[in-house]
Design a protein that fits this description.
single chain; 158 residues; mainly alpha; globular
C-alpha cells in the first residue's frame, strides 16, 4: 500500500497544492519590476502558446480516456488501456498539458517563482506517474511494450 493512499489520493492533494502555489506565485519575486522589454513581451507570447498547447494536450487526454478517467492515479477496475489518439504521442498527456500550462503561466506572468514551481510540478508528475505505471503494469500485460514505444511526459523527448 502506498503511503499516499490506497489509490494514490495523496498525490491528488499534493498536485492541487502545487497548482495553487503556481497560480498565486508573485510576479515580482524580488519586489522589482516585471521583466524588461522585450522579455516581458516574449514571455507573454511564449506563455500564451504554452498554455494553449498544454490545454489542448490535457483536453485531448481527457477525451481519449473517456470512461477510464479517474481523479486518482490507480486505474479503475473496469478500465481499458488507451494507446491511441494523444496516448500514442505521450503516455501521460494530461500531466504533460498541465506542466506546459504551468510553464506558460509562469512566462505569461513574468514569474521566475512560477517557472521554478513548474519544474517542481514536472518532477512531482514524474514521481506520481511512476506509481501509476506500476499499477498499470500490474493491470495490463501489454503496458511494458507501450512504455517502450511512447515517451512518458514530453512528446518526442521524455
Amino acid at each position: 500500500m502506498s503511503t499516499l493512499g490506497r489509490k494514490g489520493e495523496g498525490y491528488v492533494v499534493i498536485q492541487f497544492i502545487l497548482f495553487a502555489l503556481i497560480f498565486f506565485a508573485p510576479d515580482r519575486i524580488s519586489f522589482g519590476e516585471n521583466w524588461a522589454s522585450p522579455w516581458s513581451q516574449i514571455g507573454l507570447v511564449v506563455g500564451l502558446i504554452l498554455i494553449g498547447i498544454g490545454g489542448l494536450l490535457a483536453l485531448a487526454g481527457v477525451f481519449n480516456l473517456g470512461a477510464n478517467l479517474t481523479a486518482v492515479p490507480h486505474p479503475k477496475e473496469n478500465s481499458q488501456l488507451v494507446q491511441t489518439g494523444v496516448y500514442g504521442l505521450v503516455r501521460h498527456p494530461i500531466y504533460s498539458g498541465i506542466i506546459l500550462g504551468a510553464l506558460g503561466w509562469g512566462f505569461l506572468n513574468n514569474s521566475v517563482l512560477a517557472l521554478g514551481l513548474s519544474l517542481i510540478l514536472f518532477i512531482f508528475f514524474d514521481i506520481k506517474s511512476r506509481q501509476e505505471e506500476r499499477w498499470l503494469s500490474e493491470k495490463f500485460s501489454e503496458y511494458s511494450d507501450y512504455q517502450k514505444r511512447v515517451n512518458k511526459l514530453l512528446p518526442f523527448i521524455y
